[in-house]
Write a structure and sequence with these properties.
Helices cover 21% and strands 28% of the residues. The termini are far apart. By secondary structure, the chain is an alpha+beta fold. It folds into two domains: 34 residues; 75 residues, PRC-barrel domain (SH3 type barrels).
Length: 135
């Protein structure tokens, strides 16, 4: 009788942690992976649709012909504090050093998954004049 009681208690003890790990409705799960959902509202004090500058740093930038052309390095602000340009580090291939270009902010389209897109081909981006960018 004692063995049966102990076995039942052990089985319940092992099942309890598994029951406690049921995902909450605010997360999505894939076997072995739990991710938080996308925020549907802006953080407190920030208007809906606004982005923090830090949030778009290092986003990959793609051309209209589907090529990754570089990544966001910095933002250029005007005297009133509005973003007017985006400094993009342009990848020029394995044997050539990268360089920077300044893209007018209104030309950049923010996508999903840390990806921004330009209405320009890879060749057009590469042909842009360099931007003297020193971090």
């Amino acid at each position: 009788m004692l063995k049966a009681t102990f076995a039942a208690a052990l089985a319940l003890g092992l099942a309890a942690p598994a029951l406690a790990q049921t995902p909450s409705p605010s997360t999505t799960t894939t076997p072995g992976v739990t991710t938080a959902p996308r925020a549907t509202t802006a953080p407190a004090g920030m208007a809906q649709g606004h982005l923090r500058a830090k949030a778009i740093m290092d986003w990959d930038v793609y051309s209209s012909d589907g090529h990754e052309v570089g990544e966001v390095e910095d933002l250029i602000l005007d005297a009133q504090g509005r973003v007017v340009g985006v400094v993009v580090e342009v990848d020029r291939g394995l044997l050539r050093s990268d360089r920077h270009v300044m893209i007018p902010f209104e030309r950049l389209r923010m996508g999903n998954n840390r990806r921004a897109e330009l209405p320009m081909t890879r060749d057009e981006v590469r042909a842009m004049p360099g931007f003297d960018y020193r971090d």
